[in-house]
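User: Study the chain.
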Amino acid sequence: MVGKMSSEKVPEKGSNPDFEPPWFYAADENSLKEGKLLHVEPGGRNVLLLKTEGEIHAFTNICPHARCPMDRGRLEEFTLTCLCHGRRFDVRTGECLNDSLQLKRYKWKLEGGKIGVKIE
């Protein structure tokens, strides 16, 4: 898809019996749509969830270049572009395609239709 992706914010829902620290509930699987950017706050952290070609990815929602919110960026196939200065990241690796920056990745898991993110 080309163009700016819509972004949603899902407030943290508190502890979930399906996850125990360091794992925190992030979102229901059905709230994460293909090609969309979803801002969540598991464990009080600013996290970006996205799904591309059926695979889920979890990153910090803050660009390492200028601390811009990544959920306001654009996702095209496997490239996430920051809105502020055009830094492009490969969502399969978190590596910046412009320079040596790295987008922090979070481990995630799916249990009973709920996405958990590991916060350490």
Remarks:
- The first strand starts at residue 7 and ends at 10.
- Residues 1-15 have pLDDT under 50 and may be disordered.
- The chain has no helices and ten strands.
